[in-house]
Amino acid sequence: MKSRIAFSLLTVFLALTGLNPAFAAEKQSFQEWLEHYRAWDRLEKQYAQESAADTPEAVLKRAQVYLNLNSPAKTLEIIEMTPAFTGKDEADRLWLGGQAHRGLGDLTKAVLWYTQATKFMADDEIRARFKGEPALETIWHDVWVKMYWSYLANHTLSRDSQKEALDMIMVVGRKVWSNDFWNKANFIINPDMLPSASTAAKAPAEAPATTAPMVPPADTQLIAQALAAASLEKFDEAAGYVAKLSNETVRTFWTAVLYFLDSGNTPEKLDVFLEGNYLKAHAFWAGNVLAPYSKSRSDWFLGNPDSAAWTKFRNNILTMAPADAEKAIDNELGSMLISEQTAALLRNFKLALSLANGNTQVATTTWNSTDKNTLPICLRLAGLLAFKDNLNKILPDKPAEAFALYPVLTALSGAAGEDILPETEAPFWTAAPANQLQALSAEQYPLDRLLLLAYWQQRFAAEPSVGLAKRAAYLFDDSSFGIRSLIYLADDAVKAKDLQLGALYLNRIDEPALPPELRMAWLDIKTRLELDAGHQGQALETYQEMAKTGEPVPVMTRLRMALLYQQRREYETAQKELLALWDARATMPTALQAETLFWLGEGEQAMRNPDKALDYYLKLAWQYPEENIWCLTAMYRASLIYEKRGKYETAKRLLGTVVRNASRKEQRVAAQARIDAIDKKMGAEKDEDKSTLVYPF
Questions:
Q1: What is the DSSP track for 533-579?
Q2: Taking the domains of the chain in order of start, what are their residue ranges?
Q3: What is the pTM of this model?
Q4: Would you tell me how many other CB atoms lie within 10 Å of the CB of residue 434?
Q5: Is 585 helix (H, G, I), strand (E, B) or coil?
Q6: Per-residue pLDDT reduced to its tens digit, 376-394
Q7: What InterPro entries does the database record attribute to this sequence (predicted)?
Q8: Class at the top of the CATH hierarchy for domain 33-194
Q9: Which of these, 135, 359, 462, 585, has the minimum number of CB atoms within 10 Å of its CB?
């Protein structure tokens, strides 16, 4: 009877949930059942075991499963090892490849795969898919912009292929998100295709106010001489040329350039550029476009700065009169015994001397016969300014190197009065108030790298966000702003316990090249990541590196490491860390001050120093009564010490406060249990007002 009733109840339950007991097992295949419960790893095995495992449908299912498992590398492995399909299957294959590249953080490849997928889709499907992919509009914009910047720096045979890719991405952008940016992009990349709209599209509606002339031709020549002198590490001579510049703000900018070349540091005060509304000059230093050269500036100088032989030869030549120096170099060049590498170095030396000394005739002849790829960056820029040469002639042959150097040369050239791209970029010394930055960067000059950098810095300072940090880390990866954005992303991911993502961001940063304060932030995040991942030994090693930097250690990281040392029974080391925290208590909230005292007490207790432990517990209970958890726990710990010493009344008073004020029932029960135990030890109750002093006779 009971079994029949149970069966009837089960039947009713299954009916209410939509499952008929007779057909419950038939409604879903095992694969569908696994998919419902998101058992992706088991589902992939099922697909792989199918007899038709090589069909497009099966391959695409397996690739999708690995995306669901957050294993985009495995998805790519399947996709790339599979021959191209046709029609919709090929569109799906390429689309999954785009998603996998995006999952790996390679936005450029993702966009290229998505673009290829559109060749197998109708326009309606393209719009639906693209608008269904999260944040794809901003990614499409940023990838096109970054590829365009790379295209400008490319003067090799691959330039045509790059142009073709830009066109394909732009066509999709116009099709899915038809707006002003994509219309301008179309004109900029194909100016001859829109003759009727050329005037309207090409010119900004209203030119921003500028101070003219900020850098007259004579000042441009002085800057070229300063750079030539700097290439020989003659910074005093270079500073002398800069001091003659007619505009104070321009002088400040180029003084900062020389300071960076000499020390690797950027100027601390940038107010002069903000006061004059020179947005691009401020962005150059605030975003630190020169960040890739912070660690080493050897690429900027002539010869090997670490070579004693070269330094001695250079210094001997520099002590001579200009005519004698030129003659000495010519004598060396006339030798049959020198290598071509040495000959190139000597010719470059001759160029630097003649440029620095203002010997235009010799400098021009030497420049025209020089292999520009052998020149240090200072001399490349000096020649570009002195001889008004084409930028492409001084860019490196390797596209990656050219792309890295291009923004530096264009910005510094503009700062010296020679704007490289007047059609698409605002003049370097454009003066406009900060509230016009959005209009300048988004409407008038949407491809101006420094204006965009300035605007994003402004937005991030006002309201930092993960979304903006992702875009900055991608577009400005070669600036300190981009690096700071990566650190922001890594910190956010580790705080959210997404350790894999945090590690991905950290690994994208060239840690040895970081300035001290950013290196400390990098090490701090790495330490916390290793602690959360359970790699205590690695965390200790990283923390020791932090301590060696001499930079202030973040409070919470120091506390976590102190507790780790306590767990490892390294109590003395733990106490040193906690005492360092206590010394910095003025910068800490009261809850953290109280916690620090508590762990100091715990450490002394563990080292069998109950007197010192008692001092910390009682000081905590007295000084921080508002920090209920730490205060009451300290009183409980102190009561145990007093109880052990036979000071029962003191122990009971402390425990009584715990019973009255504890918010958790467990604490109240534990404290009351101790009071009861003490009462048993004390025997009959005593009058509390009566003295506890006992006369033995």
A1: TT-HHHHHHHHHHHHHH-SPPPHHHHHHHHHHHHHTT-HHHHHHHHH
A2: 33-194, 217-415
A3: 0.81
A4: 13
A5: helix
A6: 999 999 999 999 988 988 9
A7: TPR-like_helical_dom_sf (IPR011990), TPR_rpt (IPR019734)
A8: mainly alpha
A9: 462
